[in-house]
Amino acid sequence: MKLLTILTLSMTISLASAPVFADNHQKSGEKAAVAKKEKALSTIFNKDGKAILSITESDLKSFPEVTFKATTPWYPKTVEFKGVSFKAVLEKAGIKSTDMLTVVAWDKYSTDVPAADAFEHNVMLATHADGVRMDLKNKGPLFIMYPMDDNPKLKDNQFYNRSVWSIKEIRVKK
């Protein structure tokens, strides 16, 4: 009985660690391609709370790229930011320049941002700082960045407060 239990256990472990193929007709050694759903970096919700756009890493490639240098209170020196046009993202979601947005970060910080900012200024959703991909540990994966060095009016607490990093969601206010 002990031998049978050991053999059964051994076979179970062997089967559990064996590769799983999606199709029995595959040649040995071939791995099945498993399509994974890409995780959203951030989601935009309409006034009714319905998700209208989930932004993935792949989606970012479809938006116009924006690059500029900015001196901010959060970095000790001028930084070159690279990302995508915030205006283009909002337009894809059907958001108008007259809408007011509530932007929520992963750390639960939230603030209101007029969509007009994205339409009037060259605001970006920054993904890189000095060539390094930002992640949750360093203000990413998405950071609302204003071109502060290009427009002195943007070097103001009002705009600093709207520069949300680690964006989890953007909600159109009712």
Q: Can you walk me through this structure?
A:
The chain is of the alpha+beta class. It has a single domain, classed as Sulfite Oxidase, Chain A, domain 2 (Alpha-Beta Complex). 22% of the residues lie in helices and 29% in strands. It is built from 5 helices and 10 strands, in the order αββαββαββαβββαβ.
Question: What characteristic shape results from the CA principal axes?
Answer: globular
The run of helices and strands is HEEHEEHEEHEEEHE
Identify the CATH homologous superfamily: Oxidoreductase, molybdopterin-binding domain
CATH architecture: Alpha-Beta Complex
CATH level-1 class: Alpha Beta
**Beta-strand percentage range:** 25-35%
- Low-confidence region ranges: 1-35
Mean pLDDT: 85
Tally of contiguous helical segments:
5
Count the beta strands: 10
Question: How does the major sheet shape up?
Answer: 5 strands, mixed
- Could you give the order of strands across the largest sheet? 2-1-10-5-6
Q: If you consult CATH, what is the topology? A: Sulfite Oxidase, Chain A, domain 2
- Domains, number: 1
Global structural class: alpha+beta
Spatial extent as radius of gyration:
23 Å
The helix fraction, in percent, is 10-25%
Instruction: Tell me the span between the first and last alpha carbons.
Output: 69 Å
